[in-house]
Protein 1
Amino acid sequence: MERTPRSSPQSKGASVAACTRIVALSLSTVVLVTGCSASTGDPASGIDARSDDAATAATGYPVSLENCGRTVVLESPPQRAISINQPATELLLTLGLSDQMVGSASWSDPVQPQLAAANAEVPVLSNDFPSFERVLAEKPDFVYATFDWSFTDEGVAPRELFERFGVPTYQSSSECGGQDALQDRSLTLDDLYAEIDDLATIFGVPERGDALVASLRARSAEASDGLDAEGVTLMWWYSATRTPYIAGCCGAPGIITDAVGATNVFADNRQLWPEISWESILDRDPDVLILADLTRGDDGDSADAKIRFLESDPVAQRLTAVRERRWIVLPGSAMDPSLRNVDAVEELATGLRSLKVAG
């Protein structure tokens, strides 16, 4: 959400064999496909690693996609990709593409544990924004970023500059309008699934994309099955204390809220992350507070800092949710459009049941 990347060390695990690819994940399991042996992967995943890679690498190029008002053309699958922003990196790792990446940058949280081994294979160019020169030094053939700010002079560089050097780029469609603009529609999980499909197409691994989307759809449906959260109001607090950044209508918190059938108490605000006064929050008195746990160290970033503020501020402590300690903590990265949104659907559904505010 923030323009300035949230900086944190990423977990690094032991390296895995170069032939192992992560193609689907859940909170409890990771489906692995071993693409260099006779194995065709886990039958339940619906993925045949041999037909996926061999067939699509030979056909289907050039690939041309429309992305945020630009036409992106790739003559062949990227072999030297760079990902900017954690959601982009984790998506590529989940699709099993670590051996086609030469760098990642702009981290907000530790990498998901099930991706740590694959992540260890990819050099970290910077925990923040790397310079344009640092990125070009890796001779990338594709650059993929989540946030619009990444493709600006204040971030890494505008997309036009990459194009001038012959480097195709892709930006998450969730950020096409920019973080500061009034949003004209709410994001849904289908936007995430479409992005997965785009990246799987770009890299020539459509079957992996299909399997991942099927897994995510099933998990989201299972998490919300039988959950009655109608009429339950939520407030999503990202950062800052004096005038906090609270989720408006249309970003990832809206995706997650809709998936569990609850209501975002500030869904009438068309900004992604408006600054809202505590007096205005008290006027709406949400049933449950969703607290982002960030590792940057800025004002009100950590969940602990948020809770200390809630319990000491003369206005915030009057909230019903504070008096009854009804809050749910989620990683800050779960509040950005990403694969982690489905994790958040699962965690939110569990939390609402635990708080006994939803059946």
Note: The chain has twelve helices and 14 strands.
Protein 2
Amino acid sequence: MKNHEKPPLFSPSQIRTVAAEATVGWENRLRALVEVDCGTRNPAGVKRVGDIFAGWMSAIGFQVDHLPVEGCAGLWVGRMFGKGRKRIGLLGHADTVYPDGTAESRPMKRQEQLLLGPGVSDMKGGLLVGLYAVEVLRKLGWEDFSEICFVLNSEEETGSFHTRNRMAEQLSGMDAVYVLEAARANGNIVSSRAGVAQLTLTACGRSAHAGVEPEKGANAIVALLDLLQWLRQRTTGEDAYRINIGTIQGGTASNVVPDRAVAQVDIRLFHHDAVDRVDRLAKEAASRPTTPGVTITADLKLWFPPMFYNQEIGRLAALAVECADSLGMSLGHTGTGGGSDANWIAAQGVPCLDGLGPVGGLDHSPDEYIEPDSFVPRTALLALLMTCTPLCKQSQ
């Protein structure tokens, strides 16, 4: 292979064989995770999933700690030490978006060539790919690494607001971090991600009787609609970021001049200066002239910074493609408009690849799925990629 310093220690056929042997029974483990309600706002359920997975990590040689974090179920960090130099991170999350009761009402099932269930793709299947990839390497006796650090987050689905700094600390200085979100529907891995921000616009006016004395009111909905129309015109043709006006709420009854209205705007960030430009946009929106008697506030929150494609990520992506080719798999890499915890790690300058989990899709929906036939090949791919991972420039 061209993109690492020395020939791989194990042949692709060795890794394929051991992966097939090591992963026997993986569907039972997947079912054990999927049958737990673990929406982010159910910290007890998320902790149950994390504790189950931590037990499996311990069983294959990880030293596992649970790090409490206020406001969520915390982080689980597994560390394994070898005799080499490279430091490799694996990153996943235990939470889902589904409300309590989903696990019982929609249990995991096979449907033709797919496995369906809440969280199978996002991202219980990927967690198991990471676990089994390490088990494969343990069975092969691979020790040419300084450290493998497996981090399990409890609140990725809501932006990792409480855990992002602790998570980045755990994975600081890694030569590569492999994020275990599902592969794209065509099997591609992810080499860049848009940043994600949310702009909340709130209009506060004055209520009045719409029939008797409407002139005493100040209509917050009308003011907000005017502002949103301006926002659309202001951002038309913008290539640094893209907006979507997602929700509008306001008013109490049709015969009352509404005194409050709120809109939430999703913003996807594509360029290096997009965060600054969106920040200026939010301030401009808040200070813009509006309906007399109405005030506007703008609250901008950064969910994920952009994960930009760069030379180090390109090097890892090319290596992954070579590893896949040696395993008889077709693989490409692509960018996506969705964010993940990879964004936070890449923003610290750590080389990342995402989408190393099984092939899956339709996340956050009743039809969320993975392709079970992809599980063993993706496990073999990650295991081979870990053995071939080069030292990043800072480590050389």
Note: The mean pLDDT is 95.
Protein 3
Amino acid sequence: MTIIKDSYPLVLDRKLACIIGLNEALVLG
């Protein structure tokens, strides 16, 4: 259970990082 709890936030952070990266790429064009 602890492994899942520790890894889950990392997955969310990666998704957020991907979304932010895509947004920056679109803005910078």
Note: The two ends are 42 Å apart (CA to CA).
